Amino acid sequence: MAPRTARPAGTRPVGTPTRGTTNPNRLRRMDRWIAAVHGAGLRRAERAPTAVDLGYGAAPWTAVELLRRLRDDADPRTRVVGVEIEPARVEAARPYERDGLTFVHGGFEVPVDGSPALIRAANVLRQYDEDQVAAVWARLCARLAPGGLLVEGTCDEIGRRHVWVALGPEGPRTVTFATRLASLERPSDLAERLPKALIHRNVPGEPVHAFLRDFDRAWAAAAPYASLGARQRWIRTAADLAADWPLMDGRRRWRQGEVTVRWSALAPGSY
């Protein structure tokens, strides 16, 4: 099992508790993307890579699922540590510990030994002010192993709509929009799930607003493809969008209901 804690005795976790809302399979889209995009990085690690589920909430489902998905689809050596700032949530999760899965009390200091290959922080920063985000990102990125990945974002309660930022030790890299296509009316429906760094920037004059505007226009132009199914319409939309925006993925990921764009194209001026 992974070590329980690397936080010095007597120190307090950094951060504040979340509402704790969680559901089985809520983070499946994020997990699927992590395994596909970062799986090779996990496999290159000399030692068994450690993945952190930061702020997993009132129930341990997302950590349990992350272990299974990363071991099945990325690297069978992967260990997962669930980190929660509420001690009662940690105690409630302990019966679910198994080989490769442990739960510890902590926050943004990420109290695990060594440097994690992955930190996933889903639905954690929504309660913070926007001007706090950059410092949290920097703190978490500083905990990553060389070549490691921080994935921070937001989804709805059952995981149909998701937007996340991927960051390396050097800072933010990409933004991914992911959705259950059958439930999508237009791409800008995802705006309500923008991560904290972007959600208040969805106003005229900001890059993310322009991106979502162009996304909707491409979706409308691709309406004839709807007769072939929502997936084909999404693929056509993404192909058209790529003519004007630096998309970082291709048809294989688009088929999953995803579009990933370079962070620099959407970044507010303060980042």
Automatic annotation (TrEMBL):
EC category: transferase
Bias-annotated ranges (Low complexity): 7-25
Keywords assigned: Methyltransferase, Transferase
Region named Disordered: 1-25
Domain of life the protein comes from: Bacteria
GO molecular function per UniProt: methyltransferase activity
EC code(s) of this entry: 2.1.-.-
SUPFAM superfamilies (alphabetical): S-adenosyl-L-methionine-dependent methyltransferases
InterPro entries with a match to the protein in the record: SAM-dependent_MTases_sf (IPR029063)
GO biological process: methylation
Name of this chain's protein: Class I SAM-dependent methyltransferase
Species of the source: Streptomyces lavendulocolor
